[in-house]
Amino acid sequence: MPWLYLLPALGLLITFTYVPVGNMLVYSFTSWDGLDVTMEPAGFDNYVRVFTDERYWRVFLVSGYYFAASFVQIAIALYFAVILSFQTRFRNLFKGILFFPYLLNGVAVGFVFLFLFQPGGTLDTVLGWAGLGEHTRFWLGDPDIANISLAGTSVWRFTGLSFVLFLGAIQSIPGEIYEAAEIDGAGRWHQFRHIIVPGIRRIISLSFILAISGSLSVFEIPFIMTGGANGTRTFVVQAYETAFQFRQIGLASAMAVVLLLIVLLVTWIQRRLVPDDEVTLT
Amino acid sequence: MKAFAKYLSLVAASIVVLLPLTVVFFAAFKTRAEYSTSGPLTPPENWFNFDNFVTAWSEGRMLLGFWNTTVILAISLTGTILVGTLAAYAINRFEFPFKRLVLGSFLVAALVPGVTTQVATYQIVKSMGLVNTPGSAIVLFLGTDIISVYIFLQFMQSIPPSLDQAAMMDGASRFTVYRRIVLPLMKPAIATVAIIKGIAIYNEFYIPFLYLRSPELGVISTALFRFKGPYGAQWETIAACTMIVILPTVVIFLLLQRLIYNGITAGATK
């Protein structure tokens, strides 16, 4: 009887998560093009290629930019979450403004920043006003800087999410603890260090996990803004092109398996380091 | 002094967030000639120049995009809510063999990022004959949703089983209990799921881009993306099109702020 209620959810789960993962493993050991009736076995060739062909392992380096950017993102989010958790004028307005970009459509965000980074566009104009006119670059055209511009766009887009999660966690810390700390003469820094940080440890560690899997699965921003040109091709952009433009399903599957293993490994490590149980403050 | 630094940083952050959007907003009201002669930070001369919006709306087939998005959104949301609440009801209220295994399989699946499996998922959707039909997006939005099962399951724990038992004493069947008692009490969780899922579907790009190739099936994201091809150099029209896509998000955010914050927190931390 309960199986009847479970059937739709379980059926969808198996069809669209477990079967694809299983198939992907099988494909990754073949040189299948997605059309042939038979699949030629290829042994570990695809995996060897992912790790030795520069076109394929280079994408890991690109992820590095986004990973570094996510530290910036977490730091900014944490700073604003802490200051807005204390009494502030126009608190809700600032909260809304900081959070809002996260809700925006990814294609719209891509276009907004294409506009911003144009030669002679907003960023160049603002730099000119600030007397930094000679520092203007081809923000998206120069391979030395394109990834930084894109990672910056990603920070703009996702800081709001981390910020709201941190703010929620800080506000769930009971107010009496701060009062007690103030009576004991603890300053703001001590309150931050000994009350806020332990109280939001779990959400911070979760944010780092999301940062790692997020920086490996970046797709929309580079795909929409540069199409992967100028050295901005990310793992998923590369996998997309390999699978759907060059029809190398086997190779693309091997890439996806590698990505999946990394994400699972990182999650497992995080679970070991920071156990799921709530940190108690008392 | 400290307070000054605090407000300064808040204002600076607000400018960083709003400036990129404001300049696009400005550009959307400029004429062709005005756009090429004025700087990006110069406000438009005529705030009532809606020509770009008219062009974007008709040439970008935005009405079709909104219609397709709405249809997919409505069916996927209804489906997610039904499938998710039924599963949560079964897991929380019944004892059955392999229950831990079932629960575990939902848990592990939540760790698999959707983008990684698309290579293989595409073959399955293709074999079902759903590629290039709205059905593909709908089944994928239903099938990749584990977070909502989670939210329902958590909420379910707060509904006392004594309510079910009382109803069953009065002769109600298990399904009547679900339909008349559990489902109505789940309203807050349903609202949470509807909001986070609704926003995610409205903004989704990869799935419609991959599966809904025909221009007739364009959703908001893909309509906007394709618009750039033929209008690549006409930024004033692209700006208007971008604003059309952003506007509903602004309205929803202003109306449902509190629910959105709660939904995002509930969705991400579990």
- Give the helices and strands of chain A as they follow along the chain: HHHHHHHHHHHHH
Mean pLDDT of chain B: 89
Radius of gyration of chain A: 23 Å
CATH architecture of the domain at 69-222 and 244-269 in chain B: Orthogonal Bundle
What share of the residues of chain B does DSSP label as strand, in percent? under 5%
Low-confidence stretches of chain B: none
State the major sheet of chain A. Answer: none
CATH class of the domain at 69-222 and 244-269 in chain B: Mainly Alpha
Low-confidence region ranges of chain A = 277-282
Structural class of chain B: mainly alpha
Query: What is the CATH H-level superfamily of the domain at 69-222 and 244-269 in chain B?
Result: MetI-like
Radius of gyration of chain B from the CA trace?
Answer: 23 Å
Q: Terminal Cα separation of chain B, in Å?
A: 40 Å
What's the multimeric state? heterodimer
State the order of secondary-structure elements of chain B, H for helix, E for strand. Answer: HHHHHHHHHHHHHH
Describe the structure.
The complex is a heterodimer of chains A (282) and B (270). Chain A is mostly helical and 282 residues long. Chain A has a domain at 22-52 and 234-275. Chain A contains 13 helices and no strands. Chain A has helices spanning 2-27, 45-52, 54-85, 91-99, 106-117, 122-129, 146-171, 175-183, 188-199, 201-216, 220-225, 235-245, 249-273. Chain A is globular and about 75 Å long. The model of chain A is unreliable at 277-282 (pLDDT under 50). Chain B has 270 residues and is mainly alpha-helical. Chain B has a domain at 69-222 and 244-269: Orthogonal Bundle (MetI-like fold). Chain B has 14 helices and no strands. Chain B has helices spanning 2-28, 32-37, 51-59, 62-93, 99-109, 114-127, 134-143, 147-156, 161-169, 174-185, 187-203, 206-211, 220-231, 235-269. In chain B, helix 1 (2-28) crosses helix 14, helix 4 (62-93) crosses helix 8 (147-156) and helix 4 packs antiparallel against helix 11. The longest helix of chain B has 35 residues, at 235-269. The two termini of chain B are 40 Å apart. In chain B, 42% of the residues are buried. Classes of the chains: A mainly alpha (282), B mainly alpha (270). At the A-B interface, helix 1, helix 3, helix 4, helix 5 and helix 6 of A face helix 1, helix 4, helix 5, helix 6 and helix 7 of B.
